[in-house]
Amino acid sequence: MAQIVPTLLISLILVLMNPNVLGIRIGLTHIDSEPNLTKSEILERAIRRTKHKLTTLTSTQTQIQTPLQYSRPSYSMDFAIGSPSVPLTWLMDTGSNLIWTDCKATFNPSKSTTFAKLPCSNPLCQSLPDQPTCAPNCDYTYAYGGGTIILGVLSTETFTFGSNNPVSVPAIGFGCNTYSIGPLPPNAAGIAGLARGKLSLVSQLGATKFSYCLTSYGETKSSPLLLGSSAILSGSVQSTPLVTNPNQAVLYYLSLKGISVGSQPLAIGSSVFELDSDGSGGFIIDSGTGVTHLNSEGYQVLKQELEAQVNLSVADSSSTEFDLCFTSPSDQNAVVNVPDLVFHFEGADMKIPGTNYFVEVSKLNLKCLAILPTDGMSTLGNFQQQNVHILYDVGAEKLSFVQAQCDQV
Q1: Please, which pLDDT band fits residue 28 given cuts at 50, 70 and 90?
Q2: Cβ proximity of 375 and 281 under 8 Å
Q3: What backbone phi and psi angles, to 5 degrees, belong to 237?
Q4: Sign (positive/negative) of CA torsion 292, 297, 300, 306?
Q5: Cα separations (Å) of 285 from 242, 272, 330?
Q6: Angle at 377 between CA 247 and CA 250, to 5 degrees
Q7: Among 19, 39, 294, 376, which one is least packed by beta carbons within 10 Å?
Q8: Neighbours of 79 (CB within 10 A)
Q9: pLDDT of 74
Q10: Which residues is 333 bridged to in the sheet?
């Protein structure tokens, strides 16, 4: 569910890979980090791209349909499929489960000797969230926010990772799209899901854990994505359990207990970020969403506290994509009080410095909050994840993190 913010280009570097031990290191680069774009412009692009995704993610909670959604995830990875192999660019999304590509415009399965369609009796077909059509192959239909519909057949193919010393993995299940209505992801052949389900790339490669560490927006330094045995944290690591939502089992839910602004705990009810009995609400972490979105009830409390603590005048934010902005001081040497934000998870506290939740909109002389309100489910976006090494340990059902200098990981 994946979709995002500054889109990142991923170049694969394979360290080690076999059926039992998997270690892949992937370099990430912000595609939107162009010299003529400011940090706020990158963020506003990301916010516009993810609006449809967040709306759809909220609606799927009650409809119990596929959570694989996109608008334009932040990361892209290059790997090849087929025999002979065809190199493709894929959008990586921790909120998406299925791997899929366009089998009309980008990949021709008839030219591959290792392509095979899956029957409905195959366990991967049974893992689809919606009932597939059997004729006799495993045909699927996905409807997306923004009016996009894709149809295809679940298939298997050889995936090849790396270029200098390529490693090929046979019989990876993926969606072979044969028809679509509406816009598809730009600048990519499809999506590579890294969610918790059996159809995801993480599951099919046998990796029970993965991690990433995102460098600051606007930087050109590489960020790492690590799969399997390469995913290791060091330092003052904190861990919190992954929460399972039966209605959205592939998403990475966390138990957010509260929020503090500086040393001040916010008066937010304990149930605001909890999962409801019908599977709605809750709090997820998503690499494909640019900025954090908080349930409106909790967001309003945060907004009021920031207005009280930040020693600047509240400004009109209507000409931006943000909800709360302050007028930047005319004196560049003036001290602006932007306290750390702390997300209190079950068993762990994530400190978010001011640079990770405020952004300068220099052309308008504004300093804006890079957190937005939403209805229902809340999401920890990747702007707030900058310079935090985050480990998704699916096998142990926990998420761990530690502050880090990401370009040195």
Answers
A1: low
A2: no
A3: -75, 140
A4: negative
A5: 10, 16, 37
A6: 35
A7: 19
A8: 24
A9: 65
A10: none
State whether the Cα torsion 227-230-234-237 is positive or negative. positive
42 and 168 belong to one structural domain:
yes
Q: Tokens standing for 230?
A: 């390469």
Nearest C-alpha neighbor of 307 from the set 271, 358, 270: 358
Q: Is residue 1 part of a domain?
A: no
Tokens encoding 102? 């366009």
* Residue 152: per-residue pLDDT: 93
Task: Classify strands 378-380 and 388-393 as parallel, antiparallel or unpaired.
Answer: unpaired
Whether residue 217 is found in the same domain as residue 335 = no
> Do residues 221 and 367 both lie within one domain?
no
pLDDT, tens digit, 9 for 90 and up, residues 314-360: 999 999 999 999 999 888 777 788 999 999 999 999 999 999 999 99
CATH for 384 = 2.40.70.10
Catalytic site residues? 93, 286
> What's the domain count of the chain?
2
**Residues 177 and 120 grouped into a single domain:** yes
List all residues 6 or more positions away from 121 whose beta carbon is below 8 Å from its beta carbon. Answer: none
Which pTM was predicted? 0.85
Q: Pick 50 or 349 by higher pLDDT.
A: 349
Contact 117, 139 (CB under 8 A): no
Pair (278, 160) in one structural domain: no
User: How far is CA 199 from each of CA 122, 207, 211, 217, rounded to the nearest angstrom?
Assistant: 12, 13, 19, 31
Apex 260 CA angle, 257 and 262, nearest 5: 160
Would you call 140 helix, strand, or coil by DSSP? strand
Q: Answer yes or no: do 26 and 58 share one domain.
A: yes
* Long-range CB contact pairs, 244-250, < 8 A, 24+: 244/397, 245/61, 245/275, 245/279, 245/282, 246/279, 247/61, 247/62, 247/64, 247/278, 247/279, 248/60, 248/61, 248/67, 248/279, 249/196, 249/197, 250/67, 250/97, 250/193, 250/195, 250/196, 250/197, 250/200
User: Which residues form the domain of 193?
Assistant: 8-228
Contact status, residue 393 vs residue 208, Cβ threshold 8 Å: yes
